Structures are given as structure tokens and as C-alpha cells.
Amino acid sequence: MRFNINTTIGTGIVSLDGRDFQILVIPDEPPLLSIASGLTTAELPASANARAIKYGDHVEVVLMNDVIEQHPFHLHSHVAWVVGSGHASAQDVYNNKLPALKLKGAMVRDVYTVPPCEVDAKGVCVNVGYVVLRFKADNPGVWMMHCHVDWHMAIGMGMVFVEGEAELHKKGPKAFSSSLLSVCKNKSKQSEGEAGRRRQQGGPYSQSKKPARDSKKRTSK
Q1: How far apart (Å, rounded) are the C-alpha atoms in residues 158 and 50?
Q2: Which of 12, 47, 62, 211 is 20 to 30 A away from residue 219, measured at CA?
Q3: How far from 193 is each of 15, 22, 53, 62, 63, CA to CA, in Å?
Q4: What's the rounded Cα separation, in Å, for the pair 189 and 173?
Q5: pLDDT digits 0-9 by tens, 34-83
Q6: Strand locations in the chain, DSSP E?
Q7: Which keywords accompany this UniProt record (predicted)?
Q8: CA-to-CA distance for 141 and 105, rounded, in angstroms?
């Protein structure tokens, strides 16, 4: 995950796996309910900055800082091992050419500071600051990872992990508490989820409909 700030328009931008930079925009419908209702991570809007991870996997995340200030990052619902930190070219990060990771005695943190980028004599970033994290995906859900500077998160510097997509499909939206649904503007609409609406519209999750019965009374002869 590579991040920067677009100073022209005043937004945080994030690139996942070397793809184009995006501003994190949380969809109107909570992604947790969308996924639990049957959507896949790939069907979420690109601006959700969502990445699917499998339940039970050990996950490695590399945070790359293109900004000349440090950034504290936080992942909801998980505490990660910090197994590496320093400076490198972005290409070396993408090609997995970082110094040996600290796999024994690694620190365990829920907030991790990503170093600022290294700059040349003109103040231009030449190497990214990076942090390497590892955690076990043992808690199915939709979890945000974001800069812990509030206004950086507010301008879109973050992403979403969809953890255990198949497990969430099995649970369905009704598995989640009414207290969660109560924060939605339209509880009944949200509980059905995007997949439910697609079924009604004959979309990818549509189900075959039984023929309607004739409601008129038949007269005996």
C-alpha cells in the first residue's frame, strides 16, 4: 500500500499493489453489509480501496510513504507484528528486495509509524519510507486501515480489507446486530444489501421466480 497527499486538490491518495492512486471514499451502503449480502470485493467501487484476504491466512502488508513527514497507521481489529522498517526505492519494494525482515522478537503494535521519504537536495522524495507488517487473518469482517492523523483519514488516506469473504457470505447481513443496522439511514434497505436489490432487479444475484398465481376466484360449473 503506497500513499501520498495530492496537494493540488487536498486529498489523500492510496495505491494498492502498484495500481493507480485512488482517494478512499466509503460507499453509501456499509461494505460489510454489501459483502454479507453476496457481493464480492471486486464488485465494490474502485474508490473503496478494497482488498480481499482469505480467512486463516498469514498476511504481509508493506506501507510505503511518499510524503516528507511520518504517518501513524492503524488497522482495525488486528494487532500486527512490525517485521521491517526503513527506506528503499519504490521499485525495490515492489520487487521484494528489502533488507532481511526481523522475524524473531518483532514488536507487536496496533499503530505503526511509517518513516518519511528520503529527499534530495531539492527536497524531492527519492526513496520511500516503509514499514512491513504481518498479521493473521483470524477475524472475518471488513476492516479499515488508515492514517491515524484524523484529517488525513478524512481526506481519503486509507483502504479496506475484506477478510473472509466466503465466511461473510455464509453469515448473511442478518447475522449482524440491530445496533449496527440502526446507524444506517434506511434500516430495511440496508439489511437487504446491494445483492438483495440486484436480485429484485434481475441482476447477477437474481433467482428464478415462481409464476404468479391467479388471484381471481374460480367459479364452479
Answers
A1: 10
A2: 211
A3: 28, 25, 21, 32, 32
A4: 11
A5: 999 999 999 999 999 999 999 999 999 999 999 999 999 999 999 999 99
A6: 2-6, 11-15, 50-53, 58-65, 71-75, 80-88, 107-109, 111-114, 118-119, 125-136, 141-147, 158-163
A7: Metal-binding, Oxidoreductase
A8: 28
Q: State the total domains in the chain.
A: 1
How many CB atoms within 10 Å of residue 86? 14
**Bridge-partner residues for 51, per DSSP?**
161
Nearest one of 128, 143, 153, 149 to 11, comparing CA atoms: 153
Collapsing DSSP to helix, strand or coil, 56 comes out as coil
Domain-embedded: residue 147:
yes
Domain residues for the domain of 149 are: 2-175
C-alpha 173, offset from chain centre? 18
Residue 168 sits in a domain whose CATH number is 2.60.40.420
Whether 185 maps to a domain, the answer reads: no
